[in-house]
Amino acid sequence: MKHFVGIDVGGTRIKAGLVNAHFQVLNEEVIWLEDADKSEHAVLARIVEAVDAVSNTQAVESVGVGIAGCIDARRGIVVTSPNFPAWNNFDVVGRLKKHVSVPILVDNDAHCVIGGEYLAGAAVDCPDLLGFTLGTGVGGAIFLDGRLWRGIRGMAGEFGHITVEPGGPLCGCGSYGCLEMYCSRVGFEYLCSRDPVEGTDKQSPHLPQQLAHAAQSGNVTALAHFNTAGTMLGRTIAGLLNSLNVNNIVLAGGVSHTFNWMKDAMWTELRKRCYPVVADAVTVRLGTLGDKAGIIGAAMQWRLQD
Ligand SMILES: [Zn+2]
């Protein structure tokens, strides 16, 4: 059976996996990146190390890499990445080729996560699909007629930076009131700085889970924050559905595990702002692959090529 390597490069760690043709992840490795390790050279060396660690002696067909940011997948170039500011028009595939002898592909990390769910998870048999990655921030991907729509510059699916509140808070992208500022870990941090929730630490990576715990105990402020996040998500999805009229939405990423607390507000807002005939056609699903989605989607990128 053929095997493929998938690498998910985050800001603090590299996750790697060996994936077979049945989309099973056989070996997994996590390599943590210290701040000193974030130079171009050091990150490339860690990626090569990860490829070697998971493939071991197994022959592989290709290596796929997912990285946050603006990625020119056709040319194998990282145009910009928020995690690695020095990587401007960085020829990551060209550089990796010197160390890895099989074909290498690179794409945006959210495209890989939703690609994984599309190939092997919640969105199998969903050729018309909008996928959201709700994590530290918000990313996404668009599938139309079974094809990943990357856009002219690879930026299609950046749903996190759709304006949902024109007078809202400043976002990392430079705009104001983006979806990401409400419906992500960063968004919950903003909401909690405006209106604190007892028993939560707004700086904690586990803030969404802490808020869910507070909501479970009936904390009114926590419930209000989920209400706000769900409303903003519904507003975003309504606009997208009125544009694209797809019938499937997939929500992946750590914050999607708290969706139960947002879903009523999301549907209320979605129905308020969307044609009924469009809203009625939609199914919202949660990702089923968890952390493995990004590895599987990265490894199987060749299946998502034009
Ligand atoms: Zn933004």
Compile the SSE list and pairings.
Blueprint: E1 3-9, E2 13-20, E3 25-32, H1 40-55, E4 63-67, E5 70-72, E6 77-80, H2 92-96, E7 104-108, H3 109-120, E8 129-134, E9 138-144, E10 147-148, H4 185-194, H5 207-216, H6 220-244, E11 248-252, H7 263-273, H8 276-279, E12 283-286, H9 292-299
Parallel strand pairs: 1-4, 4-7, 8-11, 11-12
Antiparallel strand pairs: 1-2, 2-3, 5-6, 8-9, 9-10
Helix pairs in contact: 3-9, 5-6, 6-7
Bound molecules: zinc ion.
Residues 161, 171, 173, 175, 178, 180 line the site of zinc ion (ZN).
Description:
The longest helix is centred in the last third of the chain and has 25 residues, at 220-244. The chain is an alpha/beta fold. It has two domains: 3-114 and 292-304, Nucleotidyltransferase, domain 5 (2-Layer Sandwich), CATH 3.30.420; 125-286, ATPase, nucleotide binding domain (Nucleotidyltransferase, domain 5, 2-Layer Sandwich). It has helices spanning 40-55, 92-96, 109-120, 185-194, 207-216, 220-244, 263-273, 276-279, 292-299; strands spanning 3-9, 13-20, 25-32, 63-67, 70-72, 77-80, 104-108, 129-134, 138-144, 147-148, 248-252, 283-286. The protein has a five-stranded mixed sheet with strand order 3-2-1-4-7, with helices on both faces. The protein is globular. Strand 2 and strand 3 (25-32) form a beta hairpin. The protein binds zinc ion.
